[in-house]
Every structure is written in C-alpha cells, then in structure tokens.
Amino acid sequence: MKPSSKRRAFALTGYPLGHTMSPPLHQRLFEMAGREGEYQVLEIPPEELSSRVEELLALDGFNVTIPHKLGIIPYLDELSDSARRYGAVNTVKCGEKSIGYNTDVDGFVRALAEAGVELKNKRVLVLGAGGAGRMMAIESCLGGCDVVVAIRMSSVPRAEALAADIRALRPDAKIRICLMDEILPLIGEEGGFDLLCNATPVGMYPKTDAMPAQEEVIKACGCVFDAIYNPGRTRLLEVAQRHGIPTVGGMSMLVWQAVAAHEIWDGDRYDPGDIQKLTEEMSQLVSLQFGGGK
User: Fold this and answer.
1) Which entry of 2, 6, 69, 174 is annotated as an active-site residue?
2) Is 120 designated active site?
C-alpha cells in the first residue's frame, strides 16, 4: 500500500484514562497500513468537554471512552446506525462533517467470527447489563438468539430498560432477565448455553482470582467470551479451557474494534492472520507492563 504523505493526528479521549492500550495499538495499525499518524491521549474531565470539543474536532479522528461516549453525541453532525442503536459513540471521523460510530459491536462480532462463532439462533448468556452487556445482548437478540441477561439485584432497573429497548427494536426478541444466583437453576430446567459472554469487570487485574460465574455454569456452555483483556487469560477462560471449552479473550475484541476504526478513518483493510499476530503482540505487552498478567 502506498504510504500517505500527510501525517495526521488522532487521539483517545476519556476521564480518567490511566493506563490504556490505545496508543500502541493504533500506532501499530498505522504502521501495518503503511501510514504515518500521531495518536495521543487527551484526558478531559466531563465538565471540560464542551470547552474542548473544538480541539477534538480539529483532529482527523478520535476514539471515545467513559464518560464521554454519550456526552460527545450532541457535538457531532451525524451518527452511524450502530451509534444510534447502542446510544453510544466510541469512534469519530472528522472532516467536513463529524460522524460518530460504535465499533465496540464490530470488535465483539468479529472476535467471535474469527473463533468460528456466529451470533445466529443461539442460546446466549450475558453476564452484566452495563455498556458492553447492553451491546452484546442487543446484537445477540437482533441475530435471533435466545438471550438471558444475568445481573445483580442493583442492576434490575437497568436490565429491564434494556429488555424494553430490545423489544422496541425487535418485537419478537427472545430476551429474559435473571439474577446471578438463578443461572444454575435455569440451566437445570432448560439446559446449557451455546455462548457465555462476560461483560462484567469481575476477574480484571488486579483482582484476577475472581470469577463472574460458577464452574458448573461454565461447564454448561459451548463457548466462553470474556471482554476483559487484562489479564489475557482470566480465571473464567482458564476454567473453560480446562474443560475443553473454546474461549475468546477481550484483547481480540479490543483489537478488532480498533481495526474497525481504521477502516472508517482510512478505508484500510487488514489480513486476519496479521490481526491475530497483533492481538498476541498486544497481549504480551499487557503481560509485560503489568507483570503478572497471564
């Protein structure tokens, strides 16, 4: 691919940001595409977003994370279908118009697809109803899956609102809500799940000994996806692998959503084999930086 002669500027914004994999990940994607580009971190407190929007829109593109995924929307000219569907933006393409996209869903779907899992007519268990869990549940229901969202008691109102939103999108959606301690009895009555998706932070560094589901639940699932990427192999994934269950880690989702951003910004395409190598590279980087990441 012919390198671009223009060195452009991109960034990640959010607050607080702390450690993020975005700069090295996006830098590598620019290099792989034969492009030059500068990728920086712009930590912007919520109360400063309105005064710094012009700074962001002057970039060639930027990524958005908590707490600005909703806050950035009023300042954009257009939203993609995915951004409207999930009510959140994580990628913005700047130019004559500023357009907001949601590539988290691309990362999720493509990470599963690379593992041979298609979200069509499956029985899916989603743990958590926050931003990631909402996206996973909606995408699964739109694919005709039978979805159960398991949550803690404090998240019942959020989960019920999610179920209502899903039924508004697809009236015949198969979506149910249950509490975490009701999963095993449900499996006992109806059988296991084709796919378990962890959208909670349980098991994330530094509390790597924690697991969001009981081993008996994991054993009743055909595939396990964990959105956590630090550590690369969470205890949830280790237990699944011990029982011979296929697994997909969060780094794959993180890398593929970044790939989708570059497809939007530049129209670049990447070889899946190269992306697999990049995923492994990023996982090793996390392990080195955190010293104990598995």
Assistant:
1) 69
2) no
